[in-house]
Amino acid sequence: MKPKHIPERMCVACRRRRPKRELLRIVLTAEGPVIDPTGKKPGRGAYVCPDQAECWAEKKLRRFAGAKAAALSQALLALLGPAASEKTSS
Q1: What Å distances lie between residue 69 and 19, 47, 66, 80, CA to CA?
Q2: Pick from 47, 84, 51, 79: which is nearest to 64 by CA?
Q3: Could you read off the pLDDT of 11-54 as tens digits, one per residue?
């Protein structure tokens, strides 16, 4: 029997391929980049590793968000920062 297909996506920051469910989707809207945990919002989307703090750096996010990368980086740190620090301290 053929194994089930698992969609893969690439992290825009580190360029690593991972299963789609392991990554966090970010969508560019008219208001700017929006974090899309459901993965269903319309618009141009990109994926970021939620467990790699170096992927949330402003410089790495410029590929996708351009001038709004600083705001996106701060939003990711606010959303994912406490969870990442708990994983590293445990």
Answers
A1: 24, 14, 6, 16
A2: 47
A3: 999 999 999 999 999 998 888 788 898 889 998 899 999 998 89
Tell me which H or E stretch contains 74. helix 69-89
Using CA atoms of 32, 34, 40, 43 in order, give the dihedral in degrees to the nearest 10: 20
pTM score of the predicted model: 0.80
Task: Concatenate the DSSP letters of all residues of 17-62 into one string.
Answer: EEEGGGSEEEEEETTEEEEESSS--SSEEEEE-TT-GGGG-HHHHH
Element (H, E) at 78: helix 69-89
The helix/strand/coil state of 70 is helix
